[in-house]
């Protein structure tokens, strides 16, 4: 099936009792056991079934199957936010004394997690000089447990060389974990290029309407955990936190995500509410259509801004003279993401004036909503970072980031036009 079809059908075979066509919201904490023996069999992992919504819920199960299929992975785990997905995907395999190697330009909270939170647990992150595979490889050592990147960086818009990064990670026996939030599986499927684990903030394009926070971890199912049994002993030895199960034996290809569920989520509890799971299912049904319009509108906005006399620069991977162009061409084909950044002439002050004058664009720190959104990273999402750290993750003081929505393009351009006029008023 093609992605458009997967997004509407995969993972739901109909409800046998009610014949409901839309996926029901199983708004329940727990599931009844037939008998003591049935309960015991469930706990012993001898039979499959639902026990308690913190470890699994049938509404979320449909969403997990659907997104796993969209990404070309084997299984997935829904969690309560994109940040929880990122945290679990890493804490699943790191431990004190090990390290993560990351590309330098990351989402603000991810940067903070890697640069400041993991180190308090004895896990360091080495940030590469650039996102090139050579610079990343130079930092991988015997204690590295994962290479981490964003397929398309938020907010920098840089497109990572996923294939090259997967190659250097695998050469050193570590998995590549990719945050695919900005690209969505409609534009790019990192697993096809060798990524081992894909994480998402479903909050953005998947939900698509700015109503719910959620995340998902997709297991590509190909990393040879057994071949690196010492390094990834948590997947290869009996797990004391879960009935002594050996993940690679019991769960096969889906060992990684099974441990995320039964150790990380079961014991720290960042569970997605089934109601939000339902909203994400609604969003995903129209994701391909929305992304198509987002992409088309963003291209027109980029061209408009570039030609505008009050605009200093536009960072958009669709311009052939952009340094982002070659990687974008390889990984996104003719499409580009609807996230773009630009600087107004007149620096910080003019940028702020333009930002404050926007009427249709909402001033907020989200993206991927049907509505057009604008954000000033230096004063919001990346505010906690020092100027030097901001520079490293690709944020400048005058930069505005747009998430171009799916309104009529004329109204979007009219708003930008009047806001740019306001900068010199
Ligand atoms: C928003 C975002 C996150 C965090 O997701 P939440 O759902 O807000 O926790 C992580 N990575 C990227 C690229 C994002 O855009």
Describe the structure.
With 425 residues, the protein is α/β, with parallel strands linked by helices. The chain has 2 domains: 29-282, 3-Layer(aba) Sandwich (Aspartate Aminotransferase, domain 2); 287-424, Aspartate Aminotransferase, domain 1 (Alpha-Beta Complex), CATH 3.90.1150.10. The chain contains 17 helices and 12 strands. The strands form 2 sheets. The chain has a 7-stranded mixed beta sheet, sandwiched between helices. It has a 5-stranded mixed beta sheet with strand order 8-9-12-11-10. Helix 15 packs across helix 17. The structure holds pyridoxal-5'-phosphate.
| CATH topology term of the largest domain | Aspartate Aminotransferase, domain 2
Strand content: 5-15%
CATH H-tier superfamily of the largest domain: Type I PLP-dependent aspartate aminotransferase-like (Major domain)
**Number of discrete helical segments:** 17
Q: How far apart are the first and last residues' alpha carbons, in Å?
A: 54 Å
Helix content: 25-40%
Find the count of extended strands (DSSP E, 2+ residues): 12
What structural class do helix, strand and pairing data support? alpha/beta
- In N-to-C order, the SSE pattern is HHHEHEHEHEHEHEEHHHHHEHEHEEHEH
Overall average pLDDT: 95
**Architecture of the largest domain in CATH?**
3-Layer(aba) Sandwich
Number of domains: 2
Instruction: Trace the largest sheet across and list its strands.
Output: 1-7-6-5-4-2-3
Spans of at least 5 consecutive residues with low confidence = none
Radius of gyration: 22 Å
Q: Largest sheet, if any?
A: 7 strands, mixed
Report the CATH C-level class of the largest domain: Alpha Beta
